Amino acid sequence: MIVSGGENVFPAEVEELLAGHPAILEAAVVGVPDEQFGQRLKAFVVTRPGATLTAAAVKDHVRYHLARYKVPRTVTFVEELPRTTTGKLRRRDLS
Question: What is the spatial distance between Cα 72 and Cα 92, in angstroms, rounded to a whole number?
């Protein structure tokens, strides 16, 4: 759970929503330090081959489906998410 500005955000909820987007292959959401809110959301997104997507489009998608405080402030596009040898997501390597 990420506490941002006094609001509780469960990363899995945002990740599931992003994974349902037709241009997104997979996504991870983590909390990063923020001076004003304590923590803020940062999304790491892997797009499907051939898909084009902007950070603004990702934020708009979340804003349309979830509460405003659940919208990631930063969206970073990556080729792949870091995983362990067993395939588990290594969240500590995302920042």
Answer: 18
Q: Say if CB 69 and CB 5 are below 8 A apart.
A: yes
Task: Give CA torsion, residues 37, 28, 65, 35, to 10 deg.
Answer: 10
Looking at 4-86, list the stretches that DSSP marks H as alpha helix, in order from N- to C-terminal side: 11-19, 55-65
Q: How many domains does the chain have?
A: 1
pLDDT tens per residue across span 1-37: 999 889 999 999 999 999 999 999 999 999 999 999 8
Q: Which domain holds residue 12?
A: 2-93
> CA angle, corner 49, sides to 47 and 53, nearest 5?
40
Q: What is the CATH number of the domain that holds 15?
A: 3.30.300.30
Residue 89: strand, helix, or coil = strand
**Is the sign of the CA dihedral 90, 91, 92, 95 positive or negative?**
positive
* Whether the model pTM is above 0.85: yes
